[in-house]
Amino acid sequence: MTAEDARFMRSALTLGERALGTAWPNPAVGCVIVRDGRIVGRGWTGAGGRPHAETVALARAGPAARGATAYVTLEPCAHHGQTPPCCDALVAAGIARAVIAMLDPDPRVDGRGVAALRAAGVVVDTGCLAHEAERAHRGFLSRLRAGRPMVTLKAATSLDGRIASATGVGRWITGERARAWAHRLRAEHDAVLVGIGTVLADDPELTCRLPGLAGRSPVRVVLDRRLRLPPDSRLARTAREVPVWVVTNAPADPERAGRLSALGVRIETTSEVGAGSLAAALALLAERGITRVLVEGGGEIATAFVRAGLVDRLVLFQAPILLGADGVPLVGGLAVARPDQAERWAPVDVHRLGEDEMRVLEPARGKGCSPAS
Ligand code: AOF
Ligand code: ZN
Questions:
Q1: For residue 293, is it within any domain?
Q2: Does the beta carbon of 46 sit less than 6 angstroms from any atom of ligand 1?
Q3: Is residue 368 part of a domain?
Q4: Do 81 and 166 sit in the same domain of this protein?
Q5: For residue 269, what are the CA distances in angstroms to 147, 198, 250, 257, 308?
Q6: Residue 351: which domain range?
Q7: In the predicted model, is pLDDT for residue 161 greater than 80?
Q8: What is the pLDDT of residue 275?
Q9: Order of strands across the sheet that contains 313-318
Q10: What CATH number does the domain containing 196 carry?
Q11: 121 with 156, same domain?
Q12: pLDDT tens for residues 220-242?
């Protein structure tokens, strides 16, 4: 693997990012076709998972693909799904070499793509920026391996970790730039999830309203055990434009369920209550194809996700204000006896956004105590 390989794979990974939030249930794959050191075709997975990235990049490259190298962030598929196998398309286009970041653990692929390419005489190198690719595909991998989507917990807090004032007001803790970034986060997730308490308190819309990304709003999921979602809430009223799924416990009030359904709200039922209910809700979302969930609150939901060890990534927007102990905390009691027993979070990214600071953290598994899961 050369420095040039890494450079082109990085381009492919960046392209793949464009499909985050729209490619589900498929992975957001990126592909570049390189001929004589120049990129002649680019592609990423289409909305709903099709077309696949390679097909798009090959179409762009046209005859220039002959003798070229294809850089793909995930092993090209070998199965006849809704589209013909990408490895066949690469061979037919005359690709001479394929550089693949990581194998596709989907049982329909799982090494068969690489084998088919090699059998056709294509030189195949795997493992180029594999670590980065694992990261890029973690929603897809989590759904496949753990049967649940990847979970990002997002919160806007004060310096002292409060998400709302003493009177429960959380709008707005952070400034405009941080809020714009939060909208971008929505676009990069398949679904955004809140508890019914947040809906009743704030009547949020939970769409992505950034210029140019308006069509990228995620599915809006409400955890609403007793089906309290008001039919005149912003969510219910806009359910025909951007999907709203309510996860509730059976038996739901049939009259209310009927009214919400008539507005286009999808009602999903799980029988789980209490400790296992979050895992059940996530499993249900995974079954429906969701690979990446952005949890936006409120505090009770955030606490439940943290306690259950179900947070894969924490995105904190921190404003330079103090709200004090009478403010609403980001997480409730965790009963940590000693600091060295607390779960540790590894910082992976930090940005200044005006006066606010955004920090991205991931559980530092193995250090500190492991979360119950
Ligand atoms: C690729 N390139 O861009 C993507 C791939 O339902 P299908 O036929 O679209 O196949 C879905 C599977 O294809 C999915 O589970 C994953 O293994 C692979 N996704 N493969 O070659 C792509 N998105
Ligand atoms: Zn494919």
A1: yes
A2: no
A3: no
A4: no
A5: 18, 20, 6, 11, 21
A6: 148-363
A7: yes
A8: 66
A9: 266-270, 244-249, 219-223, 191-195, 292-295, 150-157, 313-318, 356-368, 343-353
A10: 3.40.430.10
A11: no
A12: 999 999 999 999 999 999 999 99
Over the stretch 30-76, which tens digit does the pLDDT of each residue have? 999 999 999 999 999 999 999 999 999 999 999 999 999 999 999 99
Query: In 3-state terms, what secondary structure has residue 102?
Result: coil
Measured from the Cα of 105, ligand 1's closest atom is 17
Cβ contacts of 190 within 8 Å, gap of 6 or more: 21, 24, 139, 149, 218, 219, 289, 290, 291, 292, 293
Last-in-domain residue among 76, 110, 136: 136
Would you say the CB of residue 104 lies under 6 angstroms from ligand 1? yes
**82 with 34, same domain?**
yes
For 172-220, the pLDDT digits (tens) are 999 999 999 999 999 999 999 999 999 999 999 999 988 888 889 999 9
> Residues 120, 156: one domain?
no
Stretch 239-258: mean pLDDT: 90
Tell me the CATH number at 129: 3.40.140.10
Query: Choosing from 54, 75, 188, 296, which is the catalytic residue?
Result: 54
Q: Is 116 in the pocket of ligand 1 (CB under 6 A)?
A: no
Q: Report how far residue 195's alpha carbon sits from residue 280's, in angstroms, rounded to the nearest whole number.
A: 15
